[in-house]
Amino acid sequence: xKIVICIKLDLEGCIALNYLLKNIESHDFSVILSDKxxxxxxxxxxxxxFIFYERDLLxxxxxxxIEKSYGQDLSAQYLTFNQxxxxxxxxxxxxxxxxxxxxxxxxxDSTPDIILSIRNDFIFKQNIIDIPKLGIYNVHPGSLxxxxxxxxxxxxxxxxENKAGCTLHKVDQGIDTGPIYDIKTMPVDYSKxxxxxxxxxxxxxxxxxxxxxxxxESSKNIETFxxxxxxxNYYTFPTSxxxxxFSNNGYxxxxxxxxxxxxxxxRP
Length: 268
Hints:
CATH topology: Rossmann fold
Strand order of the largest sheet: 3-2-1-4-5-7-8
Largest sheet: 7 strands, mixed
CATH superfamily: Formyl transferase, N-terminal domain
Distance between the termini: 31 Å
Number of domains: 1
Radius of gyration: 18 Å
Strand content: 15-25%
Helix content: 40-55%
Number of helices: 10
Number of strands: 9
Order of helices and strands: EHEHHHEHEHEEHEEHEHH
């Protein structure tokens, strides 16, 4: 099966891609990385600091240092994007606008059977949705339809939930509105950070993708179910005040010790 993976150029995206390539074999993969942040994400200090650790520091300093230090040693639990490109011999490119004519042609030329969207910044337009014969499936780090939108793990903790969900759903023209394949959940650990929860949630979505692909391979009927619109909520980016409330409640966006423990997994 030919699969195009659309995934974000950051820490959570890197961990998800590592997990995907290790656990889903015998497919023809190509990877399109998204590197897009909205202006509001950079304007709010807490969000900007979060981006620094999950993306800026990692991509510009830590990943190049890892690649320089360990060379061709690809035995670490987690590999950088460039290391995965080498190990799995797959194309890995960065897109500035997935819906442009340029990237529409690129995807068409890849002739994908399916597109997997995992922590992807772009909202697919119909010209891209129509390309893969099996459609586009998205991994959303929140239970749908209760946690549509952005920062779902943050919102889950902000709302004092006992469980955090990860949803695999088919993409339609809405935002997080498509029919659901399945949802996996995990307990919320309030001693852990938002980043820690995000790094745990995406592998749950990869497990769902594995089951989806196995059903396609065995020609089984893929059953999805519509979202219950009576339960829908849509969340935008948290305000500075909401970040302050979150912190005042004793919760953390990032824990330095957890961050170091994650980075240690990139060491052979």
